[in-house]
Design brief:
- By secondary structure, this protein is an alpha/beta fold.
- The chain folds into two domains: 38 residues; 83 residues, Cupredoxins -  blue copper proteins (Immunoglobulin-like, Sandwich), CATH 2.60.40.420.
- The strands form two sheets. It has a five-stranded mixed beta sheet, with no helix packed on it.
- A hairpin with a 2-residue loop joins strand 4 and strand 5.
Amino acid sequence: MKAPTLLIYQLRDRFYGLAQGMFFLPFFVGMIFLTGCQNSNVVETTIIDFELENIEITIGTTVRWINEDDKAHTVTQGNPPISGEWGSPFIATNDLFEYQFNRPGSFDYWCRVHPFMVGTVTVTDN
């Protein structure tokens, strides 16, 4: 009689495990979805061929500059040779720099290594 009782307990445990998995599955799927959406306020731009982009974003957006060039660069607020309130260290090939914009305005930026490389980040309320 022990064998059937053991089999019943094993089947019950498997059923409960499956039921718990089905109960928590929507929760985990939702968490994965929300985690994926978390970075929707990040704009990526590349640095390549000695060019910086003009970017338009809304308040609270983070800009991520990725250096895909074979030379080191910077992104520095201001106009050559004046630096502003934010700036990156040297960004090596395949490295990145991020900055979050929390107020509206037009922000010129440039590369301290190559001052002819310029761009603008325009931040709006909406």
